[in-house]
Specification:
The protein has 232 residues and is mostly helical. The chain has one domain. The termini are far apart. The C terminus is likely disordered.
Amino acid sequence: MIEDLDHIIMFHLGPLGINATLFFSWVVMAILVVGSWLITRNLKTTVQVSRFQTLLEMVVTTIRGQIHAVSGDNPMKYLPMMGTFFLFIAMSNLLTIIPWFKAPTASLSTTAAFALCVFCAMPYYGIKNAGIKGYLKKFIDPTPFMLPLNILSDFSSAFSLAFRLYGNMLSGAVIITVLMMLAPFLIPLPLQILGLVTGTIQAYIFALLAIVYVSAVAPNEAYVQSDTKKGV
């Protein structure tokens, strides 16, 4: 049986009940924060570096390369937000190998919060890239009659991310639960491996689509030159 994480109360902080969605989100955030501190506390610029630093550099380089390939823009501009999305979703999925852990991304509350962040980031990066006039111009392109549809497109694009991620993560959990009931001793390991692979793919797809939406307004020439002068 698949339970709604929002209705599972893990403990209380005074009169406030902490549900499973919030609790497991805190667990993921704590692991990412502590893990990043442990990995980055002794960074070196020499030839010989630790395995953890090598792994970290590979992850950051890969994410930066994907951002640049999709947006065609300075990847450092989007790296903090998109890297966080990917790492949080991927870690949430990875931790499901622990029997008691429930991925917070299988809750619509979590995915809706992600979608809200993307929705707020769209005008932020649009204005940062092309200025207020350049950003507002996209809503009347190619004709002012498209204004309502272009506004609706921003809403639907961002919040479709929430339902896509939620549906994929929840459906995966449902399928695994059903198959475990049918053959509990034959397929647990293959299903766990499949779940880890598909969860990582979902993390990649979510971050990739988020990059597409927030970088939809291309930077004008003045902003590109500004970034170039900063050496970013």
